[in-house]
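Per reviewer request, we include the raw input and output of the structure prediction for the construct analysed in the revised manuscript.
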Amino acid sequence: EVQLVESGGGLVQPGGSLRLSCAASGFIFSNYAMNWVRQAPGKGLECISAIGSDGLTTRYADSVKGRFTISRDNAKNTLYLQMNRLKPEDTAMYYCKQGAFGQLVGVRGQGTQVTVSS
C-alpha cells in the first residue's frame, strides 16, 4: 500500500522559508518520479514541481520557479521541497505524490498546511 506522509508546513511571514518533507513507503521509491501539488482555498490542485526518479531532472511551475527547490533522498525514501521567499499566494495545502509534472491523479498523503501571512 502506497503511503505518503507530508510534514514541515506552518505559519510563516512573507519572505520567509519552509522546508517540506514527504516520507514514502509501500513502493520502491527510487523507481518513481515524484511531484508536489498544492491546493489553495477555493481553488483546484496545482502541480508546482516534479523530480525524476534519479533526482537529476526537475521541473517547476512558473509561479514558484526561482523560489522553490525540489529534491529527494532515495536512501531515505524522502522527498523535499525547499520554499524560499514565500508569498501570501503560496498559502495552500501541500501534497506529495507519485508522478511526473502535471500529473494530478493518484494517491496523496494527508497534506501539510502552509500559511503565509503577516
